[in-house]
Design a protein that fits this description.
Blueprint (H helix, E strand, L loop, with lengths): L3 E11 L2 E12 L3 E5 L6 H8 L7 E7 L4 H8 E4 L11 H11 L4 H10 L15 H14 L4 E5 L7 H16 L3 E5 L9 E4 L3
Parallel strand pairs: 3-7, 3-8, 5-6, 6-7
Antiparallel strand pairs: 1-2, 1-4
Length: 201
């Protein structure tokens, strides 16, 4: 299990545009870090670089506690983007089973996630019939179904109402209390105590 995420002298370009450079910070076990900055500053690109989906222009991403970065990414990391990535023509049950199963969830994990995100009445509905908040709950359920140490979340609370923001905040707090880590791109404050790193400031 990884114990620390370290970002060292990181720079990211998209095409010819330099989004940011010389970025340094650390996320440790039990810690939540909020990424802030204007639209287009590079928050989403940073999450994707940490997840191995985008190659940095310079610098390093290091996961302490894992033999190498590839193993850490495949075993200890969840990335949930701003778009939920769910197929509208499939049921919520099918989408949850696919996404969480890909991450190693078993039947008990799926049941636990469905209960935690109150998905019971939604599982047999096609995703296209769900509200934006309901779709986000289906996407977030994989965090519970297949526990992993580092959560990389892009605007995780944006489509949720106040009740569900609080309930997801409780799930995040439980994750951190168990030694997990959270790095989230946000415009609104996180529902748990944490540190802020401004991108492109």
């Amino acid at each position: 299990m990884i114990s620390t995420l370290q970002i060292e002298d990181l720079a990211i370009r998209r095409g010819e545009r330099l989004l940011f450079e010389h970025l340094d910070f650390t996320v440790s076990a039990g810690e939540a870090v909020a990424l802030t900055g204007r639209n287009g500053a590079g928050k989403t690109s940073l999450l994707r670089a940490i997840a191995g989906l985008l190659r940095p222009a310079a610098g390093t991403v290091r996961f302490d506690g894992a033999p190498d970065a590839d193993e850490a990414r495949s075993r200890d990391l969840h990335l949930i983007g701003h778009l939920d990535g769910l197929k509208g023509g499939r049921t919520a049950r099918e989408e949850l089973a696919f996404a969480a199963g890909w991450c190693g969830a078993d039947a008990a994990g799926l049941a636990r996630a469905a209960e935690a995100l109150d998905l019971g009445r939604l599982l047999n509905l096609e995703v296209r019939k769900l509200s934006a908040g309901q779709r986000r709950r289906v996407a977030l359920a994989r965090l519970v179904a297949a526990p992993r140490t580092l959560w990389l979340l892009d605007e995780p609370l944006s489509p949720l109402d106040s009740v569900w923001r609080a309930r997801v905040g409780a799930l995040i707090a439980e994750h951190l209390e168990g030694g997990g880590m959270l790095l989230a791109a946000v415009h609104d404050p996180l529902p748990v105590p944490g540190r802020t790193v401004e991108i492109g400031g």
